[in-house]
Amino acid sequence: MLKVVEKMKKAYAVIIRNGLILLVRRPGLPVWELPGGELFQDENERNGMKRLISEDLGLRGDIQELIGIYTKEYMDELTYVYKAKEVETQQPINSPVYSAVNFFDVHNLPLNIHPDQKQQIKDYLSGNYPVRTHLKTWKWLFLIKNYIQTKRSSRD
Q1: What's the whole-number average pLDDT of the chain?
Q2: Between the N and C ends of the chain, which has fewer C-beta atoms within 10 Å?
Q3: What's the longest Cα–Cα distance across the chain?
Q4: pLDDT tier at 68, thresholds 50, 70, 90
Q5: What local confidence, expressed as pLDDT, does residue 2 receive?
Q6: How many structural domains compose the chain?
Q7: φ, ψ dihedrals at 114, nearest 5°
Q8: Does the residue 3 lie in any domain?
Q9: 72: in domain
Q10: CA 119, 135, 52: angle at the middle one, nearest 5?
């Protein structure tokens, strides 16, 4: 029997407020990233991004232009990055998901930003979107993640 493997879909948003970009950190990870995450299996990308902004940030967002679609070497992963705008500006952010939420100067990003998302922000700043890019993954990182995933599934 042929097993169809569906790619994991993710969506992230570039949200700009007063010329500053919103970045978030997840608990236990010292890396800043764009808000977003995994989509449900049959979820439309735009609707999923809208849901993630609402659930993870407590904001109402208007999903605007597609910045890019990104695939990743060694992984069945498809990532969509959208430009999003807050429906109500200056609304306080109350996140049940992120350990830190902050706005940064888009031209002076923190050093500990996720490398893939650094590229995605660069694509946003270029203004030449949408893009379709194949991002590189360090093979050793892929092997470690695969090993961890195998160990976890063998315990279940």
Answers
A1: 87
A2: N
A3: 54
A4: very high
A5: 46
A6: 1
A7: -55, 130
A8: no
A9: yes
A10: 65
2 inside domain: no
Strand stretches in 73-130, DSSP E: 77-86, 100-105
Residue 77: which domain range? 8-155
User: Which residues, including other chains, have CB under 8 Å from residue 35's CB and lie 6 or more apart?
Assistant: 12, 13, 15, 22, 23, 24, 52, 53, 56, 57, 98, 101
48-85 burial: b if 16+ Cβ within 10 Å, else e = bbbbbbeebbebebebeebbbebebeeeebbbbbbbbe
Q: In which residue are the tokens 């930003």 written?
A: 113
For residue 60, what are its two tokens? 């109402």
CATH number of the structural domain spanning residue 37:
3.90.79.10
Token digits of residue 146: 């695969």
- The pTM for the full model equals 0.81
- Tokens for 4, please give them: 């169809």
